[in-house]
Each structure stands twice: as structure tokens, then as C-alpha cells.
TrEMBL record:
This is Protein HflC. HflC and HflK could regulate a protease. One of its GO terms (cellular component) is membrane. Belongs to the band 7/mec-2 family. HflC subfamily. SUPFAM superfamilies: Band 7/SPFH domain (SSF117892). CDD domains: SPFH_HflC. The gene is hflC. It holds the Pfam family Band_7. The lineage of its organism: Bacteria, Pseudomonadati, Candidatus Hydrogenedentota, Candidatus Abyssobacteria. GO terms for molecular function: peptidase activity. Residues 19-187 form the Band domain. It is a single-pass membrane protein. It is found in: Membrane. It comes from Candidatus Abyssobacteria bacterium SURF_17. One of its GO terms (biological process) is proteolysis.
Length: 301
């Protein structure tokens, strides 16, 4: 029993001794091997690698890291206070340089925070408040500012810290209370100006539509009047032709009908008409009265 325990112990010690000569490296990390505090080897390939037992293994995540700064107050180019929270996307580009310059992720994020905050403070002096907050999208220049800051910070970290800065951005923007009201009033004025412009354009379009409608209305009325006059002229011509035909076929009957029409228009219960007894207009009435008188005389006889 004791010999079995001794054998197992020897095997375990042997395996432990053998394992101290190898390093298992995965794809998501860099390894810097140091000996008595000094780097002697850098491993950036996944797999099993050799080392000496007294050497130390320092592992660093090679994936993209995200750091967010606290809310910090800055001053814009037009002397307005603004509170910003920024973020940095970064990763280790040179593990050996990173180990020599910062060694830990905590130290790296602190240096990044200092560099980014200093760069934001300097660059904000080139921009006005309207370039950060505006109702007009064309005035907002935050993406441009983010790109400039990222390039500037990356130049410093790539050479000095072995860090590649992929992006710097503004994740949150706020206003101090004393500046908020002035910004809100400015935005309200900008909105009012835009609304007035739209109203003016709407009125102009409405006037154009009304003028067009009036022109079309006048054209339609003129065309209708022209057609009505043509129809009336054709009707008058046909009526004149009918009258002429009727007169040529039965002139006495035609004169009688026309006289009766004249009587109808001229006479009513209140009409008083004074005419000569031999008037052509009254000859039919005179003839009727004479016939009635002769009839009455014959009856009396």
C-alpha cells in the first residue's frame, strides 16, 4: 500500500515537474515570459510552448477592450460648460511594449483615461456648443471630433504603450443647470425659425395652388360661356328659320300667333293700353268684337 502511494506521489511530482517546462496559450491571449522580472520571450501564437521552471508567465487578453470614463465637465470654444462621458475601444498591439510600459490593465485604463480626457478638453476648444447640441443635423460635428481625438490618442499609445486605440466616442452628454436653460432657449428659437420657414413655404405653395385654380376656373367659365353663346346663336338661327318657314307657308296664321303672343305679354287685369283703333296690333281684337256684335244683332232680330 505504501509503495503504491509512493509511486503515485513520484508520478505526480514528475508530471508537475514536466508541466513546469511548458505553457498552454489560447487564441485570445498574449504571453510574456519573464525571468527574475525581465522579459525573455513573447508568445502570440496559440498552442503549447516551452519555458524554464523558474520563469514567470504573464498573460494578457488580446481581445478588444472597452473603457468608459466618468462624467467630466469641459468648456467649449464659445465658453459653454458641458458634461461628457466618453468611451475607448482598445486592444494590445505590442505585448512586450505593453508589459514594459504599463504591465496591468488597470494602469493601462488609467493612462488611457488621462490621454482621452486631455484630448477631449483640448479639442472641445475648437467647437461650439451648437456643434454638440443642435436641431440642425448639419451643425452637429461630434463624429468628426471623435475621429480626430481617436487618431491623436492612438499616435501616443501605439508608440509609448503598445496599445492600439480603435475608437473614441461620446457615450453621454449633459448640461450643467445654469447652461441648460440658455441651450433650450436657443434650440427653441432654432425650431421656431425652421417652423416659420416651413409655414412661409406652405403659404407660398398655397398661393400658387390658389392662383392656378383661379386660372383654371376662369378658363372653364370662359369656355362654358363661349359654348353657351354658340348654342344660343345656333338656337336663334334655327328659331329664325322656323319663323321664316312658318311665315312663308301661312303668313296670316303666323301674324295671328305673333299677335296673340304680344297680347299675352302686354295685357293683364291691371293693364291699361291706349291705341289707335286702326292699329295692326288691334285688328284681330277689332275683328273678334265686330263678329260678336254682328252675332248679337242677328240674334236680336
Amino acid at each position: 500500500m505504501k509503495s503504491m502511494i509512493i509511486s503515485i506521489s513520484i508520478i505526480a511530482i514528475g508530471l508537475l515537474a514536466v508541466s513546469s517546462f511548458f505553457i498552454a496559450v489560447n487564441e485570445s491571449e498574449y504571453v510574456v515570459v519573464t525571468q527574475f522580472g525581465n522579459p525573455v520571450n513573447t508568445i502570440d501564437q496559440a498552442g503549447l510552448h516551452r519555458k524554464l521552471p523558474w520563469q514567470t508567465v504573464n498573460r494578457f487578453d488580446r481581445r478588444v477592450q472597452l473603457y468608459e470614463s466618468p462624467m467630466i465637465e469641459y468648456l467649449t470654444g464659445d465658453k459653454k460648460n458641458v458634461v461628457l462621458q466618453s468611451f475607448v475601444c482598445w486592444r494590445i498591439e505590442d505585448p512586450l511594449e505593453f508589459f514594459r510600459a504599463v504591465r496591468t490593465f488597470e494602469s493601462a485604463t488609467q493612462k488611457l483615461d488621462d490621454l482621452v480626457c486631455a484630448s477631449i478638453g483640448a479639442k472641445l476648444g475648437d467647437y461650439k456648443m451648437a456643434n454638440l447640441i443642435s436641431v440642425n443635423p448639419g451643425e452637429v460635428l461630434i463624429p468628426e471630433m471623435e475621429s480626430v481625438i481617436a487618431d491623436e490618442v492612438n499616435k501616443k499609445t501605439a508608440d509609448g504603450y503598445g496599445i492600439s486605440v480603435m475608437r473614441v466616442g461620446i457615450s453621454r452628454l449633459a448640461l450643467p443647470e445654469d447652461n441648460a436653460q440658455s441651450v433650450y432657449k436657443r434650440m427653441e428659437a432654432e425650431r421656431s425659425a425652421i417652423a416659420s420657414e416651413y409655414r412661409a413655404l406652405g403659404e407660398e405653395e398655397a398661393e400658387r395652388v390658389r392662383a392656378q385654380a383661379d386660372r383654371e376656373k376662369s378658363d372653364i367659365i370662359a369656355d362654358a360661356y363661349r359654348q353657351a353663346q354658340m348654342i344660343r346663336g345656333e338656337g336663334d338661327a334655327q328659331a329664325a328659320k322656323i319663323y321664316a318657314d312658318a311665315y312663308s307657308k301661312a303668313p296670316d296664321f303666323f301674324r295671328l300667333v305673333r299677335s296673340l303672343e304680344a297680347y299675352k305679354k302686354m295685357l293683364n287685369k291691371q293693364s291699361v293700353v291706349v291705341m289707335s283703333a286702326d292699329s295692326d296690333l288691334l285688328k284681330y281684337l277689332n275683328g273678334a268684337c265686330l263678329a260678336e256684335h254682328e252675332g248679337n244683332s242677328a240674334g236680336a232680330k
